[in-house]
Amino acid sequence: MSGELGQPQAGPSHAGLEFPNPERSRSGVPGGVIRRVGAQGRRSWIQKVLEQITDSPLQWVTPSEVVPVAVLAVQRYLLEDEPRDTIPKPPLYCYDVTISDGVYQEKCYLDPSLNFLVYKNILKVGIEMKICRVSCLYNEKRLGQGILCIDNVHCGDTLEAISLETPFRNSAHKEIPERPLRGGKSHYLALWNNEDPYGDIWLTNKQPEEHNFNNTKIISLSHLEMTWANRRNFPALLVRILHKSKLRYYGKPDKKMIEPYQTFLEVADSSGTVSVIMWNALCPEWYKSLRVGLVLLLQDYSVKKSYPFRMQPLPVDPQIKLISTMEICLNLRDPPTNIIIIPEKQVKPEWRLPKLNHRFITRSELDDVPENYICDVIGILIFVGRVQRSKKKENREDFWSYRWIHIADGTSEQPFIEELFSTSQPEIFENIYPMTYFVCTQLKVVRNDHQVPKLLYLTTTNESRVFITGHRGQPYTNDTKVKNFIHWIKTRTDSEEVKNTVIGGYYPYPPVPETFTKYSSSVKVESLLTAISEVRKEIEDLQYREQKRIAIQGIITVIKYIPHASATENASASETPRGANQPSTSQAARRENQSQERDNNNKRHQDDDPMSSQGFQTAYTILNPTKKKRIVQGPNAKQVPVPQPETSAQTKGCKPDMPNIFLNRESASASAAGKGRRPISDRWESQLWKEKKFALIDHLHYSHVYPESIPRKFIFEQRKFLTEQFNSQPAKYIPPEGRPPNLDDFKSARSLGHFEVTILGNCMNYSCVPRALASDIIKAASKLDKAHIVGILDICNLGNDKVEVYLHRIYSPTNDS
Q1: Residue ranges per structural domain of the chain
Q2: How far apart are CA 575 and CA 558, in angstroms?
Q3: Which of 15, 180, 237, 384 has the fewest C-beta atoms under 10 angstroms from its C-beta?
Q4: Which residues, including other chains, have CB under 8 Å from residue 66's CB and lie 6 or more apart?
Q5: What segments bear the compositional bias annotation Basic and acidic residues (predicted)?
Q6: What is the mean pLDDT of residues 428-432?
């Protein structure tokens, strides 16, 4: 794995700059006092490099000695003070990288030309890195502050352990709160999204305080609605928080605004409910201290006409008036808002503040709930998927973070399936794991009963809140359905839900419709089909944990089954023509020892199939020459006979009801051997492939199985390690507790293998080899020769030059099936 680039002349961060003559320390090195010798009696490499820069008239150097340093932090912030009309335009965000040479730590600026190393999670915390070229930038807004700029690096392997005891060479780098090295913004952002509060500017210390109401004039919301346009001064509001939205970050390079955040609170008194908007620096001060149910006294606020296109959440009490003509604005200034949290013990009945009313539903009720219904759920987590990301808009640098989870509540053999987006609660989102009691509010029902398989799941909304600990004392604990769930849990000490819990891996959801026409109408993209010649670019454009679904058309020419015992082996070598490419996410970011590491990975025992846990039904096929059955694993397990094919050429086919269907080669071989019959072949190859495979321009291989692709059986005692493996990469290094286990040591949730499918482009010049999960590709084997198909691919960047491509479903465009 390498982030090695050629020697740039002058990167966009320092091209054409005339450096001033800054104030320097006595040693002549910018950025504060240099200590000559480290605690261990050896000189600091960082110190020596800075001294080289000081003596260089070019303000950049290739270090005379390149030694490995450890990466302790990778932190993101909005790039400012750069000309936005230049070509090429600078990126929206930039990164500070904290390194340690074993003697000192140093916070460095990463040249924007190397941002792609962060996008792909190649440059990350915990790795060893060699810096091949550095320059020095001077921050003219800070006296005597020189910034070490990383211009060229080689990213190495993950280190077993890194000491955090080494001091910062520059004392300014350890100041609290942390500040970015460049730009006018005063804070860092979360590394992978903009919704999560990150860093030490986010306070949590606001506490309720008793208030003397004798001299406080209070106005009701309904009265304020009628009179606000004619008022200059507004009396205080006494309200209860009914809903709290996730954060919205609206920072832009050309707007000189400190902490550009916004959040909505839906508050109510006895006369109505209204939206309150908290702006800018008030968000870091108050956001994490405010929670649903608190009573607030608001003073010195402003009122404006409401934004016409915003949909307010449903009121908790249908009898309370929904005020949509005005909004309450809370600012740090203009005027400076005064917020007081009133203790619940001081709340008087005569105030008639509304109580929280929840909308809990059970899993047994979900089947009859209409689409877009807003509800709350409680249950125990039985599956927690890995964190994934999706772009908010094409050609932008902003992403949503989300993961799929399964929740059991004891009322049905099926779980809730939930698409859990980040709710600005990273302390929860990054710490959920199976066997946890889970509450999520304000979920929206997504369903399509006309699709096969039927679509039914829940997704979070802007006002969703998640609870995993501290349930005692929460307002929802008095709800009848919550009490019923608690009673069920107490009587199920050794339940199947707990035994069969699963974490991580590739999760094929939502399902693809049964016809291409329905698929076409369900997606919103500029171009419905992607040419196989463009697949490489689609994949190389993916950023870390970004998952995307694309459609390709071509001709299936080779199908090969890979049993679980050799799932990680490069099993399609025999199909690979000489000179075929093994594409990575970035050709400029290859590891020098990549081939050696892959050889080592190939020797590990891995299997790669989606999990089958209580309430998650997965079908697979057992085949032998005389008898075939489809076995459905799940609470309603039945054996369904499948019609016997007429010819031996069709023995690989059956008609599936679900897209995630597997061929169990081991069972087939054992059954056939037991009856003295010949096992089924592991491979099918068309005549067209034999004719075309040596004349290809490009042959793309994406069939490698990585440990992160495999759903694992959850072990509670190893919850910390497993949770970390399937979370996003942290922005700061976290030392491991003892010697961590290997992810390959954890059992797969399934024991089946997978297929490798070679798809030849219609122009006959390109081919692609994804992994396949569905046996409908086997169904087509008898009529594959020169037959055109449309394949639906799930593509994902796992980071560190690892790409995952799954053939999710195939369609026959001729008969729309």
Answers
A1: 45-189, 218-351, 363-503, 515-564+681-711+748-816
A2: 8
A3: 15
A4: 130, 131, 132
A5: 589-608
A6: 96
Spatial separation of the C-alpha atoms in residues 627 and 637, rounded to whole Å: 19
Are the C-beta atoms of residues 429 and 423 closer than 8 Å to each other? yes
Residue of 256, 244, 436 whose CA lies nearest to 356 = 244
Q: Tokens for 265, please give them.
A: 């609170």
Superfamily of domain 363-503 in the CATH hierarchy: Nucleic acid-binding proteins (2.40.50.140)
More confident site: 661 or 273: 273
Q: What is the DSSP string of 329-392?
A: EE-SSSS--EEEEEPGGG--GGG-PPPP---B--HHHHTTSPTT-EEEEEEEEEEEPPPEEEES
Please tell me the distance from the alpha carbon of residue 438 to that of residue 482, in angstroms, as a whole number.
Answer: 11
Q: Quote the pTM value.
A: 0.82
pLDDT band with cut points at 50, 70 and 90 for residue 7: very low
From 9-18, 344-353, 370-379, 481-490, the region with the lowest mean pLDDT:
9-18
The CATH architecture of the domain made up of 515-564+681-711+748-816 is Beta Barrel (2.40)
- 218-231 burial, b at 16+ Cβ within 10 Å, e below that, comes to bbbbeebbeebeee
Q: Tokens in use for 464? A: 């969703």
The helix/strand/coil state of 656 is coil
For residue 730, the tally of other CB atoms under 10 A from its CB is: 16
Measured CA to CA in angstroms, residue 531 lies from 214, 496, 538, 540, 816 at distances of: 73, 45, 10, 15, 20
Which residues make Cβ contacts (< 8 Å) with residue 274, sequence separation at least 6?
221, 225, 266, 267, 268, 323, 326, 327, 328
User: Coil, strand or helix: which one is 743?
Assistant: helix
What is the distance between the alpha carbons of residues 170 and 457, in angstroms, rounded to a whole number? Answer: 51
User: Is the pLDDT score of 767 beyond 50?
Assistant: yes
Neighbouring residues of 395: CB distance < 8 A, sequence distance ≥ 6: none
Q: Which residues contact 3 (CB under 8 A, 6 or more apart)?
A: 114, 117, 122, 123, 153, 154, 155, 588, 589
Torsion of CA 678, 684, 688, 691, to 10 degrees: -80
CA distance linking residue 522 with residue 811, whole number of Å: 15
Select from 755, 789, 790 the least CA-distant residue to 772. Answer: 755
- What is the Cα–Cα distance from 753 to 599, expressed in whole angstroms? 20
Q: Which of 2.40.128.20, 2.40.50.140, 3.40.630.30, 3.20.20.220 would CATH assign to domain 218-351?
A: 2.40.50.140
Query: Which pLDDT belongs to residue 745?
Result: 92
Q: How far apart, in whole angstroms, are the C-alpha atoms of residue 548 and residue 538?
A: 9
Q: Which amino acid is at 38?
A: G
> Which of 515, 539, 548, 402 has its CA nearest to residue 817?
515
Q: What is the CATH architecture of 45-189?
A: Beta Barrel (2.40)
Residue scoring higher pLDDT (279 or 635): 279
What b/e string do you get for 542-555 counting C-beta neighbours within 10 Å, with b at 16 or more? bbbbbbbbbbbbbb
The rounded distance, in Å, linking the Cα atoms of 733 and 743 is 19
Tokens 């450890």: give the residue.
Answer: 70
pLDDT at 609: 33
Q: Which residue has the tokens 């050609």?
A: 395
Q: What is the signed CA dihedral for 61, 66, 69, 73, rounded to 10 degrees?
A: 30
* Closest to 6 (Cα-Cα) out of 149, 155, 133: 133
**Would you report the helix, strand and coil content of the chain in percent, each value rounded to 5?**
20, 30, 50
